[in-house]
Fold this protein.
Amino acid sequence: MIFLLRIFAVAIFAIVMFIGGCGYCLLSPRNPKHVYTFGRLFSKMSRVLGIKLEIRYADDAAEELGSAVYIANHQNNYDLFTVSGAIMPRTVTVGKKSIVWIPLFGQLYWITGNILIDRANRSKAVSTISQVVEKIKQNKVSVWMFPEGTRSRGRGLLPFKTGAFHAAIGANVPVVPIVCSSTDNVSLNRWDNGVVIVEVMKPVSTDGLSKDDVRSLSTRCHDLMAEKLAELNAEANERNKR
């Protein structure tokens, strides 16, 4: 019964957000402010899913950081309702080109100003990273990327692709890791799904780095995020036992 109620609630929310959101965004299409607005709205649905969402900022100045490349772990479809709560103002995300074909969600994703890349075409993807760099520089925006490139689905933090780090070094902006504790045990048929913690970590500077440093930067960020993920999972598990 809980499962059916939640599916119904999410369906109603999705229809209102996708149709109403597309109409709202037509007033100023592809304006980066929309991603922040709708990201925060989607995170409110975590309550309906029985999740006690907790957003933390390791650095209180994160809101005033300016342009950056945000990288987050990518677990499953619940990311839409958890890590979305950490999206900063004037931040756009980078996703697969195929997203645009998802009914309603794909159209909202595009019209809010997010960037679509063709991961199947390496030359186009490289060109898109250059466009990301230019967008950061010219429009003073930040970009949000999932460096794993795919959902981990309970496999821990997967190896990182290098696109996000190429973009950060090319634009000379910091990398800000964002880590979400595990949502593997979230069930639509459970009333209380416990605490899920999302932490925005301290920025990792790219000053003085070149393209030769991409791999080392990627490895450093992966190590920081893997350590933080283990820490948040341990805390969340302990709190959820109480």
Observations:
- The radius of gyration is 18 Å.
- The longest strand covers residues 52-57.
- Strands lie at 52-57, 69-72, 91-96, 115-117, 142-145, 175-180, 195-200.
- Residues 214-241 form the longest helix (28 residues).
